[in-house]
Every structure is written in structure tokens, then in C-alpha cells.
């Protein structure tokens, strides 16, 4: 018979015994007492609140029937039953207050019973602890501690066997007070209590485990205060010893021990980022679950804690199986909760999880469930309950997230109402500030969506109201300032006159935006991405105000921060997320410099702001390598600080109002501000280290922008740098040691992006379409090429002709056309500049030509530095050539032309290595890239411009081993010199729209891997055209010595041949382009 069945049988026996006694029998109180206790035990299994209500009634009758001089035990049992009822259902303040009255009336006579004073003090402490939990009033917590201290002192005399346990309870209570106040004296007091308890619990003592767990928690708090890892080691040792005991200590259970052990391991993980500690924590929590069977009052809490560790594992490793586990565990914990109030905490955890990870959990459906769970959690808590704030605020965040995703006005209104309620019920001032900031946040979302002046005014007022509050924690103030700047920036854009100077109103708005952004940019406690974005905004606002000096100061600050941004130990995907802070920065800084007439500064800004991942691979590692030989100690300190600052992917100032801020209540603003202070100190130390490093001979330009004057002198030319700024576009022509600027009137990054989107839509539509639709798509491609010719490339070429850099008419011999390099930025990066030409083929009267192909041999480069470095490479006399051909790739369409391309490569290089079909595995291709000077790939590629790692080659075993990604390629032999990579696959030169300036595509990855030349395509290529281009390319290469010049001209010849074959299908031949010297 199981325990629940035994309890039910025992209840029936007691009820029968009670009914058999005549009224007034002296045994009735004792039997009723046992009956009430059994009902409470049965409730632990059934969670039936009716049982608890009945138990309270039974205990009350028992107390009333007991003789006055014998009532103390009955008062204590009734008080405990009332506390159980308070815990089980919606918070019942009346039950709690009745329990406290009973305990106060029992206190004067408690000493007349053996152990009575200790029992009353312990129970009174528990009651005040529950009231503290409900109201958050610290007076209740200090009162609870006073009674716990009294109970511990009394137990030395009255119940020595329980002394260790009582001191453990006292230590736990004082820990709560320390958590609330951050007063180091309380932490030391807790440590003394735990040590006293341990002195009364030698090995083998029944309370040793519980005291060890208390000491474990204290050591964990000590670590959090001073950062000494040895304290965590001692904490983990205490927990491990407690968990090794065969049975639990008095008043506790082994599940609680394992749970605490897991918590320490999680803290240790946070300090070291060692994933093995998370795995160990999961193991400990699984043991906690095994030691806490179904029906146990703590089982739900154990499962919820296990869910939290799975969430942490997910956020660390990206393994979504942990997300599935966490959701399932939270749902199970809710079902197992011993009452609606306990379930509220688990509903909160589930709601936050669903909100933060909604993109992985079904989007709108996840947010709908989050709203239901969080609403039920809030409704289960009394309006005076301190925990209600957390649930209401999290509900507001979920609603705001749903509004952000779906833009339903009802969600905006509901979120605003919830933030307003959260502000009203917040138990602490900093939480009220947080809620007011949340209100401003959701109004900002709405205003930036509608762009209605009234909504912008509402959002601005909400931010100003929040900022006017007293004692705003720094962590929240930073976010409020940033949000206000966002709103004002849009407001300024709306009041800018279409022509002429700024109005007084617009000038005032931009001036305030500049001041707000400057504050964020200069705040060393902000993360590097946050500071760079703020400096970018500062520069834009100052430019709008007509203050180029201030704008240049802003941009130079941004670029001073850039080298610290993407530490090498982070994954490439993480570094890409960091680098999103740079998008558009170089272009806007260059536009500002050009407006001020400083062409060299414009080149410097563009060079430093573009292709940072590429420059890391090709040059930055060499610069970092100098530290070992020139300043090893300072270098070690620099790398430590760089990693520490770069690890901060989430700004503490960015958290209070976003989706992942719904989590633990902002109950420790001191801790958040301490984190800001710590980051500020590390940033200041980094500034000092960089200054000292640059005083070391040989490191004078360490992590500074390249010497642009020298670069311009040494670069081959002409190179046309196309800059797409927010408010203007320009061409910078670098040639013969000079930089000339050509404004491109009427163009902005927005207008260029619109044409890019038009081109991408057309090229997608041209693939596999019906004839009429395909013809329309090809006509669209031709229109974009015509627009590009008349708006961009022809004006640039006319300027080159005027300066004598390019002949005035196309030569009779196409082989005599000069070289020209295009260095596009922003949306220009996705346009086939080399293929642009007039739709009607009418020759330009200055150029004597109707297309770029008639005048120059075009190549591309992501940066001038990359071009300069690549010129130092050369193909060995006996090159190692690898040809990969995938005619049949599982799960993808057959590419019959792939084998023919491999044949073309081998005809040019008979000794070439070959990997075809089954032999072309992921491992074999990756190894081949690393071991050859020349790499030709004919097969499928995958591009997802929205993904972090958005380019991949599809090898034969891609379904099992996964695709061969950009990260794999760029990291395999980064910077090792090779000559050429030919990618005959789809979209290998198309990068991420959000990081257009970082060469984040397969072609860029192969440049990172050290290939000087790359042949790539902007969009999906027609297989027959791919084969035609490859044959012409290798045919041209077979008649000449392989050099930089002949490589570029061979592809140019191949593209021209493909154009001549199908001039009516521009989407077939225009995507092929050459990157390199």
C-alpha cells in the first residue's frame, strides 16, 4: 500500500474513533489534532484545498475543546494549519494574520511547556517570513530573524539535538536580509550562525547536511560580493558533502540539497563559462527530482529549477533541445504546484521563457500562451503581494513583445495598462521606475510604428516623466536616455523641411539628440556595441545640426572603439552580432568628412568601418601577434580586457524593458549598478593599456586606422569607392596617390537599396518561371542595369575620363581595356556594377560606350587594405589545384554541368585533384580548401541573408554532417596564402543585408581563408551559363601565364562571351564577378 492510501485509511480510522467517543471525552482534542495533521499530510499528495480548510476547522475545534492550561500544542498546530492554507491557495492574508495572533497569545505561556518557547519562536519566525514574502516589508524579515535567533539560543538549553538545525534556519534568514540590503555585516552574521550550527553538527549528526547547505549558500553570496572563486569551490564542497549523506537532515530533504548544489554549479558556470559545470548542474537537479517524488510538496519547485538550468544551457550553447525540455518542465511544475500561489511562480518562469524565445517556439502562439500563463499568475496573487509586480510586469513585456511582432493596437493599449498597474503596485521604488520605463518603451514601439506626431509626443512625455523620477538606478537611466533619443530622432526627421535650412524646432531637437547620444557614447559602463551605436547617432545628429567638427569627434570616438569590439575567442556568429553595431557607420562618417571637404578622412572612415572580420583574418592577427615580442605582459593584459569587455553582449542598460528583462525582479539595483561600475573600471583600464602599448617602439599604430596616405600611394588604381550614406552618396576615386570625390546627386542609401530590392526580386522571379513572367523579370533586370549605368557608373566613368584615368572611347581591341576596381559600400555591395549599361545601347557622348564592359575590366574589393595585401600573392610554378564537382547531391536537384566543369579544370591543370559526388564530403572539401592553391567548386550553395552564418556549400553528406559554412571555411586556415577560389554555385557573393559592409558571404569567407582571388555570383546562376563561363575562363587561362592581371581578364572575357551568347537573358551572365587584385 502506498503512503497516500495509508493516510486515507488512517484518516478513516481516526474519524471513526472520534465519532465513537461521547461528547466532552478528554481524548477528543488529541484525536482531532491527529486528524487535522493527517489531513494536512494528505493535502501534500492531493493538493485539495478543501482538505486544508477542513484541517483548519478541525484544529480550531481541538484547541477550543482543550483545557486552557493544555492549549499551547493545539494553538501551534492551528497556526501551522493556517500557514499551510495561506501557502496553498491564493494568498490569504486573513489566515496569516490569524496565525500571528495565535502565536502572540501563545508566547507568554510558551516557557511553561518543555521546548514550547523554542517551538513558538520558530513558528512565529516562519509566519513573519511568509508575510515578508507576500509584502516585501523588510520589518517582517528582521522580526523573523529576531525570533529565529531566539529559537536558536533557547535550543542550546532546551533541545540540544536541534541546535544545529535552528542555527541553520537562522543563517538562512540572515542570508535573505543580506540579499535585500547588500550589507556585508549581515553576510558575516549569517556565516557566524552557520559556523555555530556546524560546530553542533559533527559527522553523523542528523542536521549536518542542512547546516552544510546553509553554509554553501553563504559562501556563494560571499563569492558574489568579492569575486573570489575559492569561495565557490568551498560552497560546492559543502553541497557535495551534504548530497553524499545517506539521508536528509532534520526538517529538510535530499532534493533540496541537490537543488542547492545545482544552483552553486550554475553560479560557478557564470563565473567561468565552463559548459561542463552546466552539465553537472543538470545532473544534480535530476538527482533532486529523483529524490523528490510526485506528490511531494517541493517537487514542483525542483522541476522549475531544473527548467531554469535547461534555459541557461540553451542560451549558452544554442541547443534547442534544452528549450523543449525547459518548457515541458515548467508545464509539469505548474500541474504539480501545491496551490495557485505556488503555481504563479512557475507560470511566471514559463511566461518569460515563451516571451524571450518566441521565435523558436511558434512566434504568436508562444506569446499567446505567455499572456495566458502570466495573466493567471497575476490573478492568483493578491494586489498587496510583492510577487504580483513581477507577474504583472512580465505580462506587460509579453504584450509589448506581441505588439512589436504583430502591431495590433489592442496589444499596445493592454501593455501600457499593465505597465501602469506594475508602476502602481511596485513594492520598491526602483521597480516602479522600471515599470515607468516599460511604459515609455511600449509607447516608443507604438510611436516608431505609426510615426504619428501625437504618438511621438506621448512617447516623449513618457520618457521625460520616467527620467524626472528621483533615485533612478544607473542601469535604468541609460535605457531611458537611449529611448528618448530614439523618439526625438524620429521627431526631428518628421519636422525637417523638405528644402532649405533646418527650422528652429528641428535644430533644437537634433541638438538634444546629439547631447543624449554623446552621453551614451562617452559612458564607459555601456557595452561597446551600445557605445558605437550611440556615437554613430551622435555623429548623424551633429551633422544634421551643421556641426561637422562635433560630428567628426563622434565618429572618431566610434572608430576608436571598433578594434575592441569582436574578441577572437567568440564564435564568428557572435562576432557578427557584435559587428552589426558598425553597419552604415563608415558610410555616414565618410559622408560627413566629404561634406567638410576631407577626402582622406572619408577613405579612412570607410576603410576602418568595412570588412572587419576580413581584416581580422588577413591582418589583425599579425598585429596582435606583435604583442608577444614587443610587450608580452601588457599584451596579456590587453587580451584579457578585450575578451572581458567583448563578452558583454547584453548591456545592463539595455535590459530593464526588453523581453528578456521580465526575469528576476529588479530586486538588487545595487548589483546592476555594481556591474556597470565594474565594466566602467575595465573600460578605463583598457584605455590606459592602449595608451601604454602605443608608447612601445613598433606598436605606435597598434589598433589604429591604417595609414591612409601610405595606402593611397601604394594602391593600384583606379579604385572607385562608392559610398552610400543616409543623406548623400559619393564616389571616391583612388588613383596615383590621390583621392578625388564625385557627388552622386539625388542618391541616398535608401534609393540604392530600393533598386537592389527590385533587382533581387526580379532575379528570383526569373528562375523557373513561365516564359511571359521570365521575360518581365529579365526586363526588370535590364531596367536596373540601365538605372545603374545612368545614375552611378556612367557619371563615375565620365569623371575618370575627364581626369585621364580611362580612355575616352572603348578600344578596338577589348584586351587593351584598363583595369578598374569597384569598392562598394552598403546596398551598392549587392549590385553588378561591372554589368551595368544602357537599355537602348546608345553610346554615351563622352564615353563613346554604352556599358561598363566596353570600357574597363572590372574587379571588386571589400577594402583597399584587402586589395593591397592580395597583390603580394602569386601562384606557385607547380600549383596545387582542387576541383570539386557535385552532380548529385542528396536532397537537391541534379547539376549535370558540374562534371563538365571539373573536366574543364582538369584540361587546364591535368594534375588537379578531384572530389566528385560521394567523395566530396564535408570533411574532404574542407581539408582540400586548406591544402590547395586553387579551389574550384561546382555544386549547390545555400544563402540566407537573415542568418548569422548565412553562406554554406552543400557537400554530398550535408544531410548528415551539415553544410560547409562560412565559419568553417574562414576559420580553417584563416589568412594562409592561396591564389584563387572559383565558386560556381548560387549567390556566393551575396551577403547579409544587415551587415553589407562586412563581406559576410562565401566569397568573403574564402578571402578570409587567404585566397587572393575569388570568382563568385550575386544570385542563382543558370547551370548552362555557369558551364559556359567556366569553359571560357579556363580556356583563356590556358593561353597565358597566370597572374593577377590575366586572372581578372579571363573572367571578363568569359562574362562577355556569356553576354554575347544570350544578351536577352541578363540575369544569366551579370551575376559573375571577380574579387581580387
From TrEMBL:
Cross-referenced Pfam families: CHAT (PF12770)
Start and end residues of each stretch annotated as Disordered: 649-669
Limits of the CHAT domain: 784-1076
InterPro entries: CHAT_dom, TPR-like_helical_dom_sf
Protein name (database record): CHAT domain-containing protein
Lineage of source species: Bacteria, Bacillati, Actinomycetota, Actinomycetes, Kitasatosporales
